[in-house]
Amino acid sequence: MPPFLAQEFVHLYGTGDHEVRSFFAPGRANLIGEHIDYNGGLVMPAAVTLGITATCRLRSDRLIRLHSSDDALAVQIDLDRPIEPDPARGWGNYPAGVLRELLLQEVNFMGADVLFTTTLPQGAGLSSSAAMEVLTAFSFLALAGAPTNDLKAIALLCQKVENQFVGVNCGIMDQFAVALGRENCALLLDCESQDYHYVPVALGAHALVIMNTSRQRQLAGSKYNERRAECDAVLRLLGTDAPRNGLVHAPWESILSHVSDPVLRRRARHVISEQARVEQACRVLAAGDLAAFGRLLTESHASLRDDYEVTGPHLDAIVCAALQAPGCLGARMTGAGFGGCAIALVEQVEIPDFTSSVRSAYLAATGLEPAFYVTHAADGVHETTRKG
Ligand code: GLA
User: Fold this and answer.
1) Is the pLDDT of residue 218 over 70?
2) Pseudo-torsion of CA 103, 105, 108, 114, nearest 10°?
3) What was the pLDDT predicted at 188?
4) pLDDT tens digit sequence for 253-285
5) Is the shortest distance between the CB of 162 and ligand 1 below 6 Å?
6) Which active-site residues does the annotation give?
7) Where is the GHMP kinase C-terminal domain (predicted)?
8) Please, which pLDDT band fits residue 220 given cuts at 50, 70 and 90?
């Protein structure tokens, strides 16, 4: 444990007899396949190097105390009382929901003191909530001496918490990426069968730059649910022609013959075309054709802007600035949209000029100061306790 973390932990909780252990869960950037997980298709997210660390020590009673180094709110949970969602608990609802679910699954753990520290911007579309959930599940399984190797089960448990306890009707992509990410690979996940495999992301002289619009995701919840409802409406209109395994599998001809509403048609066109782009992305990445991969990213953004309408002025401005900046092969929003982050594929030697060019164009267009993180595909959740 780095000395500053040890100090902060002891300052908060004092010294104690049990071992202090630490765990890390990354955020994720979805490379391509946006708004596809709940439509039964293929997505290609990668865990990133930014993430959340939990420093934990068991207690001898049944009390859980949680602190986050970037939020003054202290959270306390008594394991002998029912754990219900509570707006006053703020960010603490993510770990609380996971603890409740672990107890329901009869994982047997004691109380603990936990300090969360993060390098992941909150509410920026990099899955800080999934990271917090997966981190809590993994840490408490480990503290309980239970197996932590079924990462798929951990991801599914956390998605259930997000859907039922937190109340966000998300798909399965984020929790899978955070749990199962792998260094230098993207996760190619079939959201219908939940089968996955790893696709090497060999970027050579290029790097992935995450660009934060500094615009918190707006309306993300309500518009997200609206898009899900629109996809369901398309399936209903397809009637007996509706594919059983999700809208991504609908042939475009059947959309043309059953769906006359122009908005619903555009929503379906995004879903079907984005799925085709994921398949192409696999092929061009395997062939090492980064220029083609970059073009697919940019086409994905255009489809999310024009057909799915989930980008908004800030994401459009930063992607537009990126596409005009030196060394950029392609760029797109990542995550749910409506603010948050975009990614760009950038030639490494050009990164300083790229970021300064995007910064000035974006600042001039929006008045907001963007942030940049140069990252690469990283491992999913794991223990970081230093032994010995
Ligand atoms: C959010 C959700 C995911 C996924 C993306 C859009 O990140 O949590 O399940 O639907 O939006 O691709």
Assistant:
1) no
2) -50
3) 98
4) 999 999 999 999 999 999 999 999 999 999 999
5) no
6) 174
7) 285-354
8) low
- 262 with 182, same domain: the answer is no
Does the C-beta of 170 come closer than 6 Å to ligand 1? Answer: yes
Atom 8 in ligand 1: which residue has the minimum CA distance?
Answer: 170
Q: How far apart are the first and last CA of the chain?
A: 11
- What digits encode the pLDDT tens for the residues 81-135? 999 999 999 999 999 999 999 999 999 989 999 999 999 998 889 999 999 999 9
pLDDT of residue 380: 98
335 lines ligand 1 (CB under 6 A): yes
pLDDT of residue 388: 62
Q: Tell me, yes or no, whether 13 and 120 share the same domain.
A: yes
Do residue 182 and residue 213 come from a single domain?
Answer: no
Q: State the Cα–Cα distance between residues 272 and 240, nearest whole angstrom.
A: 18
Say yes or no: 212 and 194 in one domain.
no
| Domain containing residue 151: CATH number | 3.30.230.10
Does residue 388 sit within a domain? no
Number of domains in the chain: 2
Joined together, the tokens standing for residue 355 give: 């970021």
Task: Report the nearest atom of ligand 1 relative to the CA of 162.
Answer: 8
Residues 268, 345 within the same domain: yes
**pTM of the predicted protein model:** 0.95
Annotated binding-site residue? 42:
no
Residue 92 resides in a domain = yes
Is pLDDT larger for residue 136 or for residue 10? 136
**219 shares a domain with 174:** no
Ligand 1 test: best mutation among 31, 32, 38, most atoms within 8 Å of CB? Answer: 38
Range of the domain at 104: 3-202+378-383
List, in sequence order, every beta strand (DSSP E) within 169-295.
Answer: 185-190, 196-200, 206-212
Q: How far is CA 14 from the centre of its chain?
A: 34
Binding site annotation covers 127? yes
Q: Are 25 and 167 in contact (CB under 8 A)?
A: no
Q: For atom 11 of ligand 1, which residue has the closest CA? A: 336
